[in-house]
C-alpha cells in the first residue's frame, strides 16, 4: 500500500465529491486524481521518479494538495518548504537534499527569484500560478514550466513507478542542534501504518469535513491530508492568517460544518474567550484531537464541558516516529484527570519502553526516557548517518536485541498504565507545536558580527508551550541597537523560532563547571 493509493480508492467511490477546498477554490476527487496524474506524467517525462526529491514551495491550496499526490504518483519524494522561513534556510534545504525540481505558486516563484543566488542554476521550476511566468526575468539556466505545460499531459497515470513500501514518501526538515535543519526521512510504510490506524481508531468516513490547520511542512499535516483522502472526506483548508483571529476561526468552523479538528493546543486555547458561543459554533464537531505540545489542564478542563462531541484525543509522537501514543479523554470524567494529562498507550504498531540512564527499563512511576521501535519509525536523517546512529541505537530488552529510537522525552507510567510526559532530556523544546533546538537559534545569533556570546532559554507558557528568550553579549561590550538583533533573527529564522525577547547583558552567568548558567537566566525571567 502506498499513500497515493488512498486517492485512487476514494476516486473510484466518490469521484464527484469535493476532495479539497479553500473558500471557493475546490477540487473533486476526479479532478484531484486527474490533475495529480498529469503532474506525475510530466515529472516522469522529465526524468523525475523514484529516488528523486521534489520541493513544494507554495501556500496551502487545493493545487498544493494536488502537487503532493502528483509527486507521490511519480514515485518521487515530496519535500514541503516553509514559505515563511528565510530564503537562506530554504536554499540550504534544497541543497542538502539535492532538489532538482521545485513546485511553486506565484509568490513562491518571486521569492526564489529574489534570492536566486542561493539556488542551483540548473533548478527546474514548475509554476502552478494562473499567470504564465516571463522566463526573461529569471536566471537563464533555470528550466521554468507553467501549469499549462502540465495540463498537456495525459490525465491517467501512464506508469506505475517501481517503488516499495520502504521507498521515501516525504522529507520533513526539523530544527537541528548544529544550527542547520535536519531532514527526517519517512517512507510510505511509516505513514500508511499511522493513517490506517487513525481511520480504525477515529472511524472517519466520507461524510466528514476535515480542517487543515497545520502547515504542510509540519508533521500534523500528514493526518489531515491522507486520512481525509483515505476516508473519502472533504479537506477544508484554513485560509492564511485566519488562525490569528479566534472569532473568525470559530465562524469558519461553523459555516463549513467542520467535523474533524486536529491541531496544536494553542490553536484551540484561542477559542476560550468565546466560551459562551463555543457549543453553538462547534456543534458540527465530531472529533477533536490535539498534539504537538502539552495542553494545560486548566484550559482543557475549561474547554471540554463546552464541547458537544464526546470524542477528544491527545496524540503524541516526534516527527521521527509519526504518532506513537494515544489517550482518549472522557469528557464525563475530567475530574479524574490530574494536571498531568497522559499521552496514553502505545499505538498498535509501536513498541515502547521507558529506560533509565543505563538503558534499562524503569519501574512504573519512575521517570525515564521513552524509546520506540516499529513500522512508523523513520528511515533516518537525510545524509546524516552520524546523527541517525546517535538517535537510533541497539538495545537489549528482555533478552532481545533491537534498534530503538531515543526520543529525548522523559516520561513515566502512571497507576492506570498510561504514559505521562514530564519534560525534554536535551536542549530541544516545544513552542507553538514545533520542536525547536535552542542551539539552532544560538548558532544564528552567533553569526551576527556584533554578538560575542548568546544563550536561548525556554520559559513555560500556557498559551504556546514555551516562550523563547535570547540573551547575548556584544564584542568588546560595544553598544548595539537591540532592534537590529531582532531584525537579524527575523531575517534568519522561521517565524515560530523567533525569540519573544532579546536581552543584551554585559556578561552571561556561569555555573561551577564554567558553562553558561541557563537556569539562572530562566529565573530572571520567571521572577519578572
How would you characterize this protein structure?
The chain folds into 3 domains: 159 residues, Rossmann fold (3-Layer(aba) Sandwich); 184 residues, ANL, N-terminal domain (Rossmann fold, 3-Layer(aba) Sandwich); 99 residues, ANL, C-terminal domain (GMP Synthetase, Chain A, domain 3, 2-Layer Sandwich), CATH 3.30.300. It is globular. Strands 4-3-5-6-7 form a 5-stranded parallel sheet. A 5-stranded mixed sheet has the order 12-13-14-15-16. Strands 17, 18, 20, 21 and 22 form a 5-stranded antiparallel sheet that branches. By secondary structure, the chain is an alpha/beta fold. Helix 1 runs antiparallel to helix 2, helix 1 packs parallel to helix 8 and helix 2 packs across helix 3. A hairpin with a 2-residue loop joins strand 23 and strand 24.
Number of strands: 27
For this structure, the quaternary state is single chain
Average pLDDT, to the nearest integer?
91
Could you say what the CATH architecture of the largest domain is? 3-Layer(aba) Sandwich
The biggest beta sheet reads: 5 strands, parallel
**What structural category characterises the helix and strand content?**
alpha/beta
Through-space gap between termini: 54 Å
By CATH, the topology of the largest domain is Rossmann fold
